[in-house]
């Protein structure tokens, strides 16, 4: 599919270069090492000039396919020149035999006449018979020259017979030769290869080839993440990428015997408009890929965060209100990927209808194939029929006559669990313009849509088909505004629209009980809620206002108030949906960034929720929302935090205790005494006096028992430093308990040791005994699936903690070394925010910090807090992609809140510097002594 321009000749002066190289051999043979060195140097200069000129033109005209063709042209000429030099000046044969002929052939992607800056150069050296010494020498000379030029060359040397034989058995070789392009040498030999390949390999084997290519595509998609909406897509191999377009062309070339993309229109595969979309997608993807290779200086195929912004700028994208330049570029990328998906479905549908009949091997990929066509009426419908087990229209006027049918067809497919016939989907796409203001306000259309959205079967799949057909974005225009919208951060794995559809899928699975083991509370609660449709509507709309200048939760709530009545929801239902959207982040935020043992945290949250039903709805929505963000985002630890907040809040909402009383402390002490069976009454009484009231009401009974025995053993051994490791498989964390003499730098030391050991802290519970010991429980993310392996990993971390506390490890240097590695978050720019809050807790000042995450951050923050003479009561660490949110409950050294305005300002300044890494030098100054905290 190449269309060379005369300007290509300006990229490299092939004739002039040949003359220059020939002139180098006037005083010697071309095989002379000195002459070869001079030849190589001249080729390098010409080749680099050509590539530099190609990049300049790409920056100038933006032509992606043109760039790839220009690079292929430069490569073509270099190979031709090397070949000519080899046979005329190095291995010249005056009277060549029939065996001493060769065709140099480009195969694979290079065979299409397109080449990316960092791509491999795939060559096939075709011989008439078996290899000869002359042929072996020429091939070796060409390859070594190309390698010395710094090129990655894939190559094979085969006779015509070998090519044909291997193509029959090896689908990779068959695909490579399918795209073979003559470069230089004996052209009749190449023509013989293509003729025999066509007659002996391709003929009557379309089904076999198409089946293999679609299976290969599906496996490739599985490896790349099975979604075209991943926010760091693979431009070449990912779903909706260049390889998908290549696959379409391979299939068309094989099944329809076309030689170019434009011939696909003549063959009836594409309409002219569809082919134009094909060409536009190809050009855009090639432009992105070429820019990526030029920018990174390597064959980089993943459009990662650290290059997205610069690629956007190279392609001249600019920022708009609510969307950065990089987000607008990535939206365009995902719209192109969506178009590639549409084109794939069109080609597969055409294959099904015209070319593949009764082929079991293809049925997995193309659905029920058209053999003996069977049509039967669909019960209760005059506009739709079941055609080969698929939903089809009775005629092409069904949508024009009644536009509600554009929604009804999806409702019928959902109700009867039917696939869509390709003819019906093509007609739907052509009829999208019928979705106007009148249809959007039609009560029947909205009723049908609400039925689809709240289906008890598989609403995600039908909504996805509506989206792919372009119906969903026209029927719900606000959904169209977030279609293909990416958020430039490391937290969200998918585009906004993909996230919303996946969230509906997660919710449906929860309702069907398919995720009970992972989410027991949400699975149980969803059976108890009074109105399930408010939950589905709220989840579908919760991020509908992303990409706007204002808070998307507030704007989304306003959209819900406008849209819900249209969908048929009552005023009360609309109010609930609007509330859920406005507060859809609240449960997660409080669970991950607040001390859930602080009664004010629970009381304040309960005041917002007010009624148990809303608490249930919010918990279920939060689980589905987080789960749909991406693989691995919802962890067992997050689930535990959500459950804890839910149960504590439910207790308050149903009239349970909301404050800490002396009775609860006494009851907790009595409860512990009962399980300390081998302790004397005096030992128990003495132990009771070693803890402050907060400890008794916050810690679980089992943990109290473990702590008591741990402290008792430390007393007996005389070693006031002890550690313990416990794995929590369901929560996905490992708990490290440290007993040590209390001092302000204790948590900082533990955090630094964990950073050096590569252990990610997610939470910390900190208690101090009345006799000067600190009892800190640190929760780190679990890394290994086996409990025994994970426990050994935890023990390695605790050994490092003990070494650091005993001064055997120089922690600042170790953390600095660990922090100097590659940090993906550096691709982002976030302003650090430090808040000092006294209204959040009754006993503590809450320091809330958010900004760009980096290695060693928690260590720097805790060191600075200790340098500020603050005691940390609890720490809550959350990471949302590149954004870290760290919250500390602190007091001054007398146990009081920080109320002085000047001191608060100093804390904000110092912690901002520490967050940004500017406070490390000051915190490392010698001479600072530990201060024993009195509580």
TrEMBL record:
It holds the Pfam family ACT_ACR9_3rd. It catalyses: [protein-PII]-uridylyl-L-tyrosine + H2O = [protein-PII]-L-tyrosine + UMP + H(+); [protein-PII]-L-tyrosine + UTP = [protein-PII]-uridylyl-L-tyrosine + diphosphate. Residues 1-377 are annotated as: Uridylyltransferase. Residues 496-618 form the HD domain. CDD domains: ACT_ACR-UUR-like_2, ACT_UUR-like_1, HDc, NT_GlnE_GlnD_like. One of its GO terms (biological process) is regulation of nitrogen utilization. The keyword Magnesium applies. Uridylyltransferase (UTase) activity is inhibited by glutamine, while glutamine activates uridylyl-removing (UR) activity. InterPro entries: ACT-like_dom_sf, ACT_dom, HD/PDEase_dom, HD_domain, NT_sf, PII_UdlTrfase/GS_AdlTrfase, Polymerase_NTP_transf_dom, UTase/UR. Keywords: Hydrolase, Magnesium, Multifunctional enzyme, Nucleotidyltransferase, Repeat, Transferase. Residues 735-817, 846-926 form the ACT domain. Its cofactor is Mg(2+). Its EC number is 2.7.7.59, 3.1.4.-. SMART domains: HDc. GO terms for molecular function: [protein-PII] uridylyltransferase activity; phosphoric diester hydrolase activity. Has four distinct domains: an N-terminal nucleotidyltransferase (NT) domain responsible for UTase activity, a central HD domain that encodes UR activity, and two C-terminal ACT domains that seem to have a role in glutamine sensing. Belongs to the GlnD family. Modifies, by uridylylation and deuridylylation, the PII regulatory proteins (GlnB and homologs), in response to the nitrogen status of the cell that GlnD senses through the glutamine level. Under low glutamine levels, catalyzes the conversion of the PII proteins and UTP to PII-UMP and PPi, while under higher glutamine levels, GlnD hydrolyzes PII-UMP to PII and UMP (deuridylylation). Thus, controls uridylylation state and activity of the PII proteins, and plays an important role in the regulation of nitrogen metabolism. This is Bifunctional uridylyltransferase/uridylyl-removing enzyme. It comes from Breoghania corrubedonensis. The gene is glnD.
